[in-house]
Write a structure and sequence with these properties.
Blueprint lengths: L8 H19 L8 E3 L5 E3 L6 E3 L6 E5 L11 H4 E3 L7 E3 L26 E2 L12 E13 L3 E5 L6 E7 L7 E7 L23 E2 L15 E4 L2 H4 L8 H10 L1 H7 E11 L11 H4 L5 E6 L1 E4 L5 E6 L6 E5 L3 E2 L5 E2 L36 E4 L4 E4 L6 E2 L5 E2 L3 E3 L11 E3 L33 E2 L5 E2 L3 E2 L11 E2 L27 E2 L5 E2 L3 E2 L10 E2 L25 E2 L5 E2 L3 E2 L7 E3 L4 E2 L2 E3 L12 E4 L4 E7 L9 E12 L5 E11 L15 E9 L2 E7 L6 E4 L3 E10 L7 E10 L5 H4 L3 H14 L2 H10 L1 H11 L4 E2 L7 E6 L6 E3 L3 E2 L5 E2 L3 E5 L2 E4 L49 E2 L8 E2 L7 E3 L9 E2 L3 E2 L5 E2 L3 E2 L7 E2 L7 E6 L6 E3 L3 E2 L5 E2 L3 E2 L10 E2 ...
Parallel strand pairs: 11-12
Antiparallel strand pairs: 1-2, 3-16, 4-8, 5-6, 7-15, 8-14, 8-16, 9-13, 9-15, 10-11, 10-14, 17-18, 19-20, 21-22, 23-24, 25-26, 27-28, 29-30, 31-32, 33-34, 35-36, 37-50, 38-49, 39-42, 40-41, 41-49, 42-48, 43-46, 43-47, 43-49, 44-45, 44-48, 51-52, 53-54, 55-56, 57-58, 59-60, 61-62, 63-64, 65-66, ...
Helix pairs in contact: 1-4, 8-9, 15-16, 15-17, 15-18, 16-17, 16-20, 17-18, 17-19, 17-20, 17-21, 18-20, 18-21, 18-23, 19-21, 22-24, 23-24
Amino acid sequence: MKFTNSMSPAVLLWTMCHALLLRISVGQIATQQECETTNSTGFTEYRACLANTESLNNLMISARVEPEDYTCGYGQTQEENFYCTLDVSFQCNLCNATDPSLAHPPSYIYDQQDPTQPTWWQSITWYMYSVPLEVDVTLSLNHSYTINSKIEIIFQSSLPQRMILEKSSDYGSTWQPYQYYAYDCGYFQMAATDELSLTSPTQVICSEDYSSGVRTVFYPGGSVIFNVENRLALLTNSTLPEEFQKAYESNLELQAFLEITNLRLKLLYPATDGLEWTGQYYSLIRYYYAISNIDTFLICNCNLHGKFCYQDSNSLETICQCFHNTMGKSCEQCLPLYNNRPWMAGSALPFPEGTANECEKCNCNNHSVSCTYSQEVGQGVCNDCQDNTAGISCEICISGLYRNSSVPASSPNSCIECNCEPLGTMENETTCSQYAANNKPIGQCSCQENVEGRACDVCIDQYYGLLLNETEGTCKDCSCNRFGTVNASNICEKEAGQCPCKPNADTRTCGQCKDSFYGYPISENEDCLACDCNPGGSISPACNKVSGRCTCRSNVTSRQCSMTVQGFYFNYLDSNSYDAWGADSDCIRTSSVPFDLFTGRGYQKCYQGNQVTFRGVTAVTSLADNALFYRPVIRYTYVSSSPWLQANLNIVSAQSDAGTSLCPVAVGTTISTVAFSLPPGESTGWYASSGQSVMLDRRCNYDVTLRLTNDGSGSEEIEIDSLVLLPTGDSFPIYTQGDAAQRSFYDECLRNISVIGKRQSAIDLCRDFMFVVSTESNDGAVACDCDPTGSIGSSCNSYGGECVCQVRVGGQRCDRCLPGFFGFTENGCTACDCDSTGSLSLACDFNTGQCPCKDGVALRGQRNSNDAVSDRRCQSCLANYYDFNSGGGCMACLCSAEGSVNPQCSDTGVCECKETITGNKCSICVQGYFSFSAAGCIACGCNLDGSTDGTCHPDLGTCTCKANVQGDKCDQCLLGHFNLQPSNPNGCQPCFCFGHGTQCNAAPSYIASAITSDFTQGSTTGWTATDPSSLMANPTSVRVLHPASLPLGSYVYLRAPRKFLGEHLDLYGQQLSYTMKLDTGGANTTSARYLTITGGRSDMGVYYNQEAFTPELTRRTFVATFYETYWRVVGEERAPNVAEFQEILSDIKALVIQASFGPGTASTFYNVRMDSAQSVSNPADYSSFVTVVEQCTCDSSSNTMGLSCEQCQASTYRQNNVDEPFDTCRPCDCNGRSTTCDSVTGVCQDCQLGTIGDQCASCADNVQEPLCDRCMPNHYGFGTDLFDGACAACNCNITGTGGATQCDISTGQCPCTGNYGGMFCDSCQFNYFDYANGCSRCDVCYDSISTEHTDLLLQAANLTSFVETLWAADTSATLGPFIERLMATYNQMLYLVLRTDEVIREGNNLTMTVATLNTTMMQLLASLDGTIKTSIQTSQENQASIEGLLDQARVAMVSIELALINSYNGLSSGDIQSYQLTLGQLVTELAGIQTQLTTLSSSVTIRELLLTQQVTDLSLAAGTAVQTAEEALMTVQQAQSVHDNTTSHTAALVTKANEVTTLGQQTQQAVSEVMERAQMAQSAGEGGAEGTMSASIEELRQESDDVIQEAMSKILQAAGIEAQVTAKQEAAASVISDVEATGTLTESLVITANSTLEEVNARYNRALAANQSATEAVASSTATFTAAEEMLAIVTNFESQSSAAQTAADEALLKQTSIQTLSSETTTIATDLKAQLTPINITAQEGLTKANQALQSVEVEAQNIRPVSQKAQQLATESATKLQDTSEITNSIRTINATQYQPAKAQCDLYTPDLVTLEGLVLQANTEAQTATDEALATEAATSKLLVDVRNIQQVDLAELPALMVRIEQARATFTQGDFAQLVTLLSQAVAEQQVWLDNTQIQVTEMQEQIDALESFKVSQ
């Protein structure tokens, strides 16, 4: 065999690198990316399928040998199948194809090799010489593959002398050579070419390196290589994978060269020893071909659309598993529906992911399963569209159908039929449009005249009837009656022609009113009027369709039947009620005051087991049905936390009062039994559910019994008020015919009236409902029934029937005394006057007047504590009782006979006790004493460290110990605890011991120590921040800024360094402290996690909860104590148990301190200290020790040791092989061959010689079993350092040893014989050769090259060592990790270059951003100032406008008053006609005034909206300013941190300037608030006046029918009140004038404040100029460092210069307080406006503050150079001057306050009592007016009839008028009397006299009514 010169290491490395690039770029074995992935949204991302490489041995291939019978063993004779080896061993054998052990079939060429059983293909021998022994061996791959690495052919025989390696890419149709191999390439007429000398990747060469020659023919088992790597190395000089991949992608020739479907080896001449020419048989049978294996790595060609191939189970073909929507054997075509673009192979570029070039799906809208790419269209065209679709994308419909836009285009129903209506289309056309065009929708049919709609199936507006049978195909005119249609419309319904009637009109053309309506409209804006007959007061809902008059029930009147006749009333819903006071009961009958908490005289106070029986219960109804459904109600009071568990209500029929009855139910029959619970409540009620309703017959009497069965766990006492029977709503049409909302309202009425506390609201709100139910139930109104003794007159209120009672008399009929009074007579009742302290109630016995006394209080006739006889009013205690004034009754003294000195107690009930005895009754020992006796008590003697409070058991003397303490005196720790400490809430701390022991003591010799971090040295000492940019180290502290970018509720935290972490069990009971302060801002206290630690096995976090560590502006030290009760678990908000807490301390993993506290805050930290304990070796030198360290007694079974059993004992290891101190330990398991092991894993250490393994259980390699004490035979090295206790095989060559196999057991040297040499005797000695023949001495010629030979051997050894060094330095035999590291380094370098460029760009952008933010901030401030001024000006204009409108309203009020006075005068003079005229004019004027007021209200509303919009704009501007300022602040704060500690002196000056600015702004703000509040006050006053007048007008309009009678009764009283009101209005006018004067004063203050603001703004502008100068100076700050030292000196001198300015600023701030106080007093009358503008002012202030902070930060940054100091001096001078001006302005404002505002305020204060008095008089007048209205009900009906007569006065007998006027005058005079009772009597007499006259005129009234009806009918017909 020939060999080229050895390659240099550099060339070798280059070749290896390119071999790796081949694997990466061609094979992609390093890339495991998916071909396609689909995310959760359904989006599919495609990538190139970088296929996996496969070994040739793993493929489904077939091998063929030609000629076929040239395989050894296939022959028929022994001669054909016999062979001998060519090597020196000369072994002979037979081939036999039928014997697996002797067979050598072609399949053995590519099988998987087993090293222990080698296989190979073998040809026949050259026994037929001289016939050439030429054999073709062909491998068919059944698919196209790309060769990925070298092809290696391993021969079992010696290498052939000549052969050719060929390949086919077309499954064997054509063949191309890969490489020629020959001992002499001249045979192929080619020159021999070295593989490293290739000039082209596809060059075909002839190699002489792999063929047998005469000297190598005897060495079988060689390899023939076809090297691919060297060819790929020619593609590019770059080692970058992406460059290599580009080169490979562009070299199509190389790609075709490496693509194969078949591989063929043409074997042309076998290896021979040169004796073939002799023709000797025993020579020829040694010449043959034998191939052990052919292998290479290949990639299945799937056009980068598949990663690998597989064998199809049906066709047995090898095909690709395709992706990218492709298919085919090699993924060479697109799927049927994915031809929207031409098929393309994938690409590996760009590297490394490549390009998929996936097939794109055609958009066929799910109507086709395939498409074809069209070059003309440029996309895929769908084939065979389904679902009635057509088009390139199946996007249109076939004729007669159109697109259904209501479903997706992909729906099977996307095309629907046109369905054109033939009757409505032109020429009965049935097709429609496919597209929307000319304002016509898609699918539009062609319509004929007067027809429309998509399908031409409806008439156009104002026509109908296209499809009506009688006129089919014709649209007719609607012909609607437009007075009856909505909006006078003639557009009717398109099918039947129904016109759109107004709500109350009817018929198709809307030509008449509906039923229950009247008055058909005579204009377009009118509608029929509703009858609105009251459903209870009227018999029918229908009315006269001309007049609208309803038919009323008895004693009910008015057009709608909604009023009762005089002397009759309608009931409340709860009128059928039965008072518990008069019921049969075993409860306690009780009454009380006030009596609004119950309904009758009182109630029954009941307990469990009591019952209350209501007798004589009846059903009250006049309905046609005798029976009616009721829902019972029990009214009660039950004060409890839980309901009364069970009560029962039983209803039985009872005996009639008359003795005989028509009741259909037998006496004693149970009607209903209901069980229920009573919820707690005061003055509440139980209202039976609808399922608990009961039907009662009005012909029957019933007894209803309430049994209080079980009070449950609630209060024992319940107060029963009454039984009520409420009719069910569904018994009345008003309920059943109502809608859901109405029924809900009626249900609410029933529920509310059942409850005493809500009864009055139900009466007020449900009047209409009650009227209907009452009049329907009673078939009309009910007659009044007043008790003559207790009532005044016989008339009652028409609503509820309440009579007018005598003084202190109550009840609907005025038939009893009110609670709190007794002695019912015609003169009323007498007050009880019970003593509220001694009485259970202020209500006494209604007959005797005896008050109900409390326990221990004396009744009438008993002797009291004053030794006197008591009266009935419960005014004193019984003898020997005390504590009357407590209000709970009197109590007995009950002094202890053993403990008291005297049995008599004091007034407070305290007895006089013996020494060591205490208690009010002298019955207990003093605290700290026990054993009570007549001789006194004994001291407890408790240990104060272990007891809870030093007290003990009163009898035994045993102390109350803390949780972990024991002993009678609490002086011992419980077992398992130690370290008794007074500060420990539990006394002793538990033993921890990591769970390996339960007993411990305090470890000795430990002293107090501490772990500290001192920040005063200018370092963070290892502390870090969660936001690193916020942490700054100053010379004396560390500072933390709250980043503006942090989300709301997030904060910065300091994280402790390592020395604070780890095992700190000694911290239990000790403390951690830190010192800090808040520099700026206010701390946000919403977060309570100021200090948090995390640790333990589960990383549990706890935070300190005992105290809120809220920082302040002064330095403060916070101290946290480590007891578990002081901490809370993060996320669970509970205290950790002691085991959890100690586990955290055993392994603290994190300790964090909150360092920022919200936007705008900055904090400074000075130090952190954590207590610890330190062991000392010389305890005698110390006097004080700590006892917090435990010394545990470890359980022997745990095999642990250490203070807390945290270590494993010697020769043991952790149970779970993890270094976890909570795990127990177990002994080492080393099989007696070692005594030590790893304490964590248990792996044995120092196994005895010859043994190995984790448990020393095995003998070392080649060591004799079982004792492992010597090498196995034919091995050596035991007991030496050669093989680490193992042995190695001798491997002696028996030829060289003469058959000996054992070597030296120490060195391994085999015993060589003769001239044999080498360690294994497998070579000749030096200068000897021909090993096979016994090693002969070399010729003399060898001596001449011995030196060169020696050098070559040395180079070979060095090269071998170098290669081994390279391999050892890497981790992969393929150099994979090395190239990966190389590429990673390269990518990191590129990333760093890009990041550097980005940082440079960001630096430039930051400079520009700061400048932009400064400009924007100033623009926003200017805009904000302008907006504020504009808003003030607008508010002033609005005030002036509102004042004008207010003046108009006042004039209107005066007109109304004059009109009323004239009306009253008219009534007094009796000129009724004149009064009617005046009243009509008044109504007209009121209507006009109402219009003015409406205009006024609209104007005010508009101005209010404008003001609101201005306020909103101001808020938005302020918000924008704040946001911009915050951004600017964040930017400059980052720059500030660089010089934070060098600029404090200049910063002080800037702060004073900012304070001056703030002073001016606050002055402006306060004065602006004065003006705006005054404006709001006036607006509020005008709004109130408007509301009052509107209400008055509405009242006059609704009650115009009652004006006459009310005016007659109240004319004199109204006149007096009118005079008072007039006087108060004049006084109020003065007040208004004063307010206006105050407004003028406020305007002057605004002007003054604006002037001040201008001055401050000027100073602010100069400050900005200074800031600009400072910014320009920053650029030169790097010129020299000496300038900074000069600045320091100047700043030092500057302190004295700035002190004057600072003093002036402080004075101004003090004066500012006075200004704010003055402004506060001035603006008390306008607080509403302040509440509205305060948030805006705050927002603006925040924006200004942020801007000031930004300004301050920029100025601080600028103070690093000398010019800053000079500018600051100039600013100080200007500030001092302007501060003096500010003081003058302040004095001016103070003078205005003293001379103008204070007198005005004093004058306003003088009017305050008058205004209060006026309000009282008005309230009294309203009360009297209401009372008079109720009292005048007795004359209501008569007056109403009188009004009818007045209206028809021309038809009435005028002769009756004088007498009538006399009576009216008498009535008017009567109304002026003070005694109201006499007035009512006179009115009653007048009514009686008038009745006669009214009867005479009733006939005339009836006739007149008929005439009116006729006239109204005539009017309608017109």
